[in-house]
Design goal:
Elements (H helix, E strand, L loop, with lengths): L8 H14 L5 H14 L4 H18 L2 H17 L3 H18 L2 H17 L3 H18 L2 H17 L3 H18 L2 H17 L3 H16 L4 H19 L4 H16 L3 H17 L3 H109 L31
Length: 427
């Protein structure tokens, strides 16, 4: 099957994004446009993806847009990965994940974990990749992020296939493929279909393997999804090699198809794998000239990838310097905050004795006032009691020297003054 010659959909998306970018203001919307362009260029031109990712990172840092900064770092990590600079991809990806965790953004955390898992899978670190993928799966399920879960399930299948645990690989890959179809995720669909072809080929089920290979090629051709086409064509070539040997024409045909797709789409990884496969196939045919030609192509492609990796090292140095400067700024801000807190604590510590002394004096004054008030109240009560007693005594009592003796009622009515009360006239 020959790849379609029409313009790929990714090119149309890139043109649309670049038109929007040309008229966008330097705000958070522009950051998101730059990160989307970095994503679109990741499989096509990794260096362009890195360039757009750097622009997004610079603008996000200038705007103090931490979410955009995290997303830009994740995109940069993918660009460095596709360019073959795995150390830079790991360092940048870890920075992006750490920032996403600080922001507590489930979507960004899931993307960062998935990207780091894919990076480890490409390097053959399957168990580390699975650890990242399962963490991403947990985040996607908890946040109900179906799009992320769709990608992660297929990646888990890829990692199990790399470990030759084909039962687990087919379980997760089939689940991922079903989610692809349900959510209309074409990129993930064609990639998972090609991987299912590889899994069923390893399980000794060539009919199912061819079914998924053909489905992947049919769906990927219209959109020119390069990595899936290369994977599916090369998978069919290897399947024919297992069944009919390297001399089979179908082996060479599908190998050349994989090479053509990689060359047309400027996909060095696909070109390298296809040229190495064809060199081995022609060597088995004892066609030394063809084998040498494809070996030379593989060597040139490897040198190109190495050169691309060297170029990205300069980009990585710039990005790392920016990250270092950001960390220094954060450390300085943290140190300033800690110093401010220490000064505040010192001021409080020096004020505590004075506050205690003031409290003690106020407490003593309060107690003295309470005692004085109690004494004043007691004196007032005693004064009131004495005044009441005197008033009562003056009203109810007369002097004993002027009291008259009571006489019976039959006594004379003439009043007789007591002797002590008779008036004495002067002689």
């Amino acid at each position: 099957m020959v790849p379609a010659t029409g313009p790929p959909q990714s090119t149309a998306r890139i043109d649309s994004l670049q038109q929007q970018l040309a008229t966008s203001a330097p705000d958070t919307g522009r950051v998101l446009l730059l990160t989307q362009l970095a994503y679109e260029y990741t499989q096509i031109t990794p260096l362009a993806a890195i360039a757009y990712g750097k622009q997004a990172l610079q603008l996000a840092q200038r705007l103090h847009y931490r979410r955009g900064e995290s997303l830009a770092l994740i995109r940069l990590g993918s660009g460095f990965r596709e360019a073959g600079n795995y150390p830079a991809a790991l360092q940048v990806g870890l920075h992006g994940l750490r920032l996403a965790e600080e922001l507590r953004e489930p979507e960004l955390i899931g993307r960062g974990l998935n990207a780091l898992g894919y990076l480890n899978w490409e390097q053959g670190n399957s168990r580390t990749a699975l650890a990242y993928f399962f963490r991403a799966k947990a985040v996607a399920e908890k946040s109900k992020n179906t799009k992320l879960l769709t990608r992660v399930m297929g990646n888990i299948g890829n990692a199990y296939q790399q470990l030759h645990r084909l039962d687990s690989a087919v379980l997760f890959s089939r689940r991922g493929y079903e989610l692809d179809l349900a959510n209309n995720d074409l990129v993930s669909e064609v990639g998972d279909a090609a991987m299912l072809g590889n899994i069923y080929s390893g399980m000794g089920r060539p009919d199912l393997a061819r079914q998924f290979y053909r489905g992947s090629i049919r769906r990927a051709q219209g959109q020119r999804i390069t990595f899936a086409l290369c994977r599916a064509y090369l998978g069919q070539a290897r399947l024919w090699q297992q069944e009919a040997g390297a001399r089979a024409d179908s082996t060479i045909y599908f190998g050349r198809q994989a090479l053509r797709v990689g060359q047309q789409s400027n996909y060095p990884k696909g070109v390298l794998e296809a040229s190495q496969f064809l060199a081995a196939a022609f060597a088995a045919r004892q066609d030394s000239a063809a084998a040498f030609r494809y070996l030379a192509l593989a060597s040139a492609t490897r040198d190109s990838l190495f050169s691309q990796t060297k170029m990205t090292q300069l980009q990585a140095l710039d990005v790392n310097e920016r990250l270092r400067q950001r960390e220094l700024a954060e450390q300085q801000a943290q140190a300033t905050h800690e110093r401010r807190q220490l000064w505040l604590l010192a001021a409080l510590a020096s004020a505590v004795p004075a506050l205690l002394l003031l409290w003690r004096n106020n407490r003593h004054k309060q107690l003295a006032n309470q005692q004085l008030n109690a004494q004043n109240a007691q004196i007032a009560r005693q004064r009131d009691d004495l005044s009441n007693a005197l008033t009562h005594s003056s009203k109810t009592r007369r002097p004993s020297w002027c009291r008259a003796k009571r006489r019976p009622f039959w006594a004379s009515s003439r009043r007789v003054l007591p002797t002590s009360c008779k008036i004495r006239w002067p002689s």
